[in-house]
Please model this.
Amino acid sequence: MRRKTVIDLQNMKAANEKIAMITAYDATMARLVDSAGVDMVLVGDSLGMVIQGAEDTLSVTLDDMIYHGRCVARGLKSAHLTVDMPFMSYQVSAEQALTSAGRLVQEGRAQSVKLEGGQRSAPAIEKIVAAGIPVMGHIGLTPQSVNTLGGWRVQGRTDDAAAQLMTDALAVQDAGAFSVVLEMVPTELAAEVSAALNIPTIGIGAGPDCDGQVLVCNDLLGLDMSFSPKFLRRFAELEKPITGAFSEYIAAVRDGSFPAQAHCFHRSNPTKKVTRLY
Ligand code: KIV
Model:
């Protein structure tokens, strides 16, 4: 079995096959999503919220992404691995972007990297791609700009904003990106962008006409039932069964029913009294 490449993913768009992408942050979840047959795994900087408990992605560091990238890579057999470039790891200059992307590949075992921004990020994309590292763009709601955007809002609703989003999508493609995430974009606009681009669009909150979809693994599994944005479909509701299992374990420890005999190890000569060695 071999890992999917950016060429495989681009061929999927050409063949009109939808691309399924899921985030993962550790080797266990990577193994599970990979064995389910997902096409792409994203180590998203959403790990700021999902793993680190922060309120946004801004405090995630390049070293954090490298660490989680390496963990996830160990769990994959066939899925393509994209790792997010975190805030301030590519905004300073194209040179800084290339250095950071290089670390994500060398140390984080990424097959490609993802960065946010359209026209403004084109020089960084060009520089990284020229060094042989595939880049995925990310436009629409770009969480690293949450303080500028004024919150987690749908982007591209007005005519001007829609025109800017189309311009950004084309700029990302022209800079050499192999694919682009469209986050929180009106369905009709995402459809137009997907039709205009040769590279696959991967939507989250961008309707069914994107070339693929991405969801955060914890959201898709329903690990936090208090998080319910409009775009989310939970394919399982695991928060309750998981806390239920933990509660049963705690009760079993407290009432002494765990461990039972079946979980115990025994000496070969259990009746002989143990004597000290020295
Ligand atoms: O960080 C992330 O998980 C992402 C996806 C939601 C696209 O960027």
